[in-house]
Fold this sequence. Notes:
mainly alpha, 0% strand
Amino acid sequence: MPHFTQSKGYGYFCLILATFFWGGNYMFGRILSHVIPPIILNYLRWLPAAIILLLLFAKYLPQQRHIIRKNWQILTALALLGVLIFPVFLYQGLQTTTALNASIYLAVVPIVVMFLNRICFKDTIRFPVFIGALISFIGVLWLLSHGELSRLLTFNVNRGDLWAIGSAVSWSVYCSIIRLRPKEIGNSVMLTAQVGIAMIIFTPVFLSQLNTENLQIISELTYGQWMIILYLIIGPSILSYGFWNYGMTIVGGTKGAAFTNATPLFAAALGILVLGEQLHGYHLISSLLIVIGLTLCNKK
C-alpha cells in the first residue's frame, strides 16, 4: 500500500510538470504560430526531439521490437493524435482564432474524456469527479474571461475555431486511449517509439510543405525565436509527453485528464513571472477553483 500511494504521488507530480511545460508552449507557441506555418513549426519542434530520444534510448529498441511490432496500432494512434494532429491543429487554429476560444475548447477535454471512458471502457462516472471537472472548467473560464463571464457572450466562431476544436478532440481521444499502451515497454522507450513513428508519417507531409518561401522563413528566424523552438523541443515535447504518459498510466485517464485545465493556469503564471504581466484578483480566484476541481477529481 505505501508503494501504491508513493506511485500515485509521482503520477500527480508528473502531470503537474507536464502542464507546467505546456503552459510555456501555450505562451510561446502562440507567438511562433503567427510567424511559422503550423506544419513547419511542428516539424522543427519534433524532429530534433526524435533525434535526442533516439540518441538516448535507441539501444533499448531492439530488445522491445517484438512488443512494438505487436502494438504498432495503438502506438501509431497515439503518435497521430498526440504528436501530430493535436499540436498542428492548435497552431493552425491560433492563426485565426483567439487564445480565449482555443483555451475554452481545451478546458472541455476532462469532461469529454470522462464520457469517452464511460462509452468505450464502461468506466463509472463518479459524482465528485464530475463536479470537480465542472468546477475546474469554471475556474478556467474565470481565468480566461478575466473574472467577467459576460465577456464570453461575445464569443465568435470562425474557421480557426474548427481547427482548435479538432485539436481538443484529438487530445481527448489521446487521453482516453493511452491506457491501451503496452505495459511491457518502459515510458522512455514508449515515447521514443511514439515520436519515431510520428516522424516517419510526418516527414513526407513536411517535405510537401517545404518551398522557397518556407525555407526563407526558417533562415530569417531570430536568435530569440530559435530559443523558443529549443524550449518547445525540450520542455513541451520530450519532458511534457514523457511526464504525461507516465502520469496518465499511474493516475488513470479520467483523473489525469483533469490536469489539462492546469495548462492555462501555468500559462498565466508564466506570463506574470516571465513577461511581467500584472497579477489580478481573477488569477487567484481561478487558481482556487481549478485546485478545488482537481482535488475533487482525484478524491478517493
